[in-house]
Amino acid sequence: MVLSRFRAVVVGAALLLPACSFTEDALWPSLTGEDPAEAETRQVAAEGGAPATADAEMVIAPGQPPLGTGDFEPAGVTAGSSTGTLVGKKVQELREELTRMQASVSQHNGGLQDLRARIVQDSQRYHGAVAAINVRLQVGTTRGNPILVQQFNTAQTDLDRISVDISEMNKLATAVSGDSTMSAYLSERAQATFGISGAVDEDHRQLAILEDEVNRTVVLIDRLLKEASEDVQRQTNYVTIERSNLNLLSIAIKNGEILGASLPNRTGLALARPSGPLAAQNTAGRRPLVVIRFDRANVAYQQALYNAVSKVLENRPDATFDLVAVASATGGAARQAINTTKARRHADTVKRSLMDMGLSSNRIAMSNKVVTAARGAEVHLYLR
User: Fold this and answer.
1) What is the DSSP string of 360-384?
2) pLDDT at site 16
3) DSSP for 303-316, written as a single string
4) What is the pLDDT of residue 273?
5) Domain assignments of the chain as residue spans, ordered by start
6) How far apart are CA 327 and CA 350, in angstroms?
7) What residues have CB less than 8 Å from 100, skipping those under 6 apart?
8) What single-letter DSSP state applies at residue 211?
9) Residue 28 has pLDDT above 80, yes or no
10) Please, what sign has the CA dihedral across residues 143, 146, 151, 155?
11) Distance between terminal CA atoms of the chain?
């Protein structure tokens, strides 16, 4: 019953195809769940070169995640006069160390603000390039349009710049962590100085002021480190998502039509990977989710495959699949071996497409079979 429900979802997607016709010469995969290689059934298909499906939205890459807004400029160190005592000298040493530490914090704060500004600029350029590509794909264009290829390379360069910015911010966070260690040590020394004998009242007055300033600096450094670390984490996740989207965008440019966001991003859920490779299962008696018939060159299967798998994952984010290379049984043993190799090669291509869409290879089990009714090389995708 569960599998039937998900197949119904996929059939609904097929019915939304605005330029579909029902023909036996299929360029697009069957989304009916019927196996044309094992039964004489009518295959739902569209003519080659059909525009994107009605439910394929213009994919503008999601906005850059927020960066922190804190400004962590130290307030400075209060000057003090020398009392000539041992404690007074200790206070002066602590004051000089605090001044040096605050100068380091100020430098790191300036670096953080500069990196934030650079990330925003690089992100704006990146999203501008991606938006231009998607707008062109949305209205339709030629396969491998060189203008879009150039824009794609620009977007990839901009995303690489963001990665470099994040790496620099991570280095900065490491340096701020050193400030944090030093500030804790300085706070302990200030407290210990109160216990040294031979102090005058002025020494303790100045030491109290210094201790407060050290403690405020400790809090400031902790906040700086917290925001820098959070920025690094958010922006790292963001770049990972965008790289996945770029992989899918490259397929869209190659085919001249928009697909959608990467599968994990479209479903809004992280697609968990099984602990190890899946073992192939017997698919006899099971109805395929998608059938791709490679009976001519340049079969445009990616959009229908993407739609089918994404709709399944929206309902079952943990779904796994069997990908089967189906070869024709016509001819002798030598011919069947050639047919099997050809079908396996097509199945490998489909698997790469699924991985480019964001599906982990550990969620796809591959196998092959020879079927008498097959009219050529086919690839079947089954939902487990």
Assistant:
1) -GGGEEEEEEEETT--SEEEEEEE-
2) 31
3) HHHHHHHHHHHHH-
4) 56
5) 2-56+262-383, 86-255
6) 15
7) none
8) H
9) no
10) positive
11) 13
Q: Which helix (DSSP H) or strand (DSSP E) does residue 284 occupy?
A: none
* Amino acid letter, 241: I
Per the CB < 8 A criterion, the answer to whether 221 and 22 are in contact is no
Query: Which parts of the chain fold into alpha helices (H)?
Result: 2-15, 86-139, 146-193, 201-255, 263-267, 302-315, 333-356
Q: Which helix (H) or strand (E) element contains residue 325?
A: strand 321-328
43 torsion bin: left (phi>0), alpha (psi -120 to 50), beta (else): beta
CB 143 within 8 A of CB 251: no
- The pLDDT value recorded for residue 19 is 30
Q: Which two tokens stand for residue 251?
A: 């397929």
Residue 291 has what pLDDT? 93
Assigned token pair, 325: 């290379």
The per-residue pLDDT of the chain, averaged, comes to 80
Nearest to 259 by CA among 51, 63, 64, 62: 51
Which three-class secondary structure state does DSSP give residue 92?
Answer: helix
State which CATH number among 3.40.50.1820, 1.10.150.80, 3.40.50.720, 3.30.1330.60 fits the domain covering 2-56+262-383. 3.30.1330.60
Q: What is the pLDDT of residues 155-195, one digit of tens each?
A: 999 999 999 999 999 999 999 999 999 999 999 999 999 99
Structure tokens at 52: 């994107």
Q: Is 4's pLDDT higher than 70? A: no
Residue type at 50 in one-letter notation:
A
Does residue 7 surpass a pLDDT of 70?
A: no
Reading across the β-sheet that carries 290-294, which strands appear in turn? 290-294, 377-383, 321-328, 364-371
Q: Could you tell me the pTM of the whole model?
A: 0.61
- Tell me the CATH number of domain 86-255, given options 1.10.3470, 1.20.58, 2.60.120, 1.10.8: 1.20.58
Contact between 327 and 368 (Cβ < 8 Å) = yes
Which distant-in-sequence residues (6+ apart) come within 8 Å of 374 by Cβ? 37, 326, 327, 328, 329
Query: To the nearest whole percent, how much of the chain has pLDDT over 90?
Result: 51
pLDDT of residue 166: 95
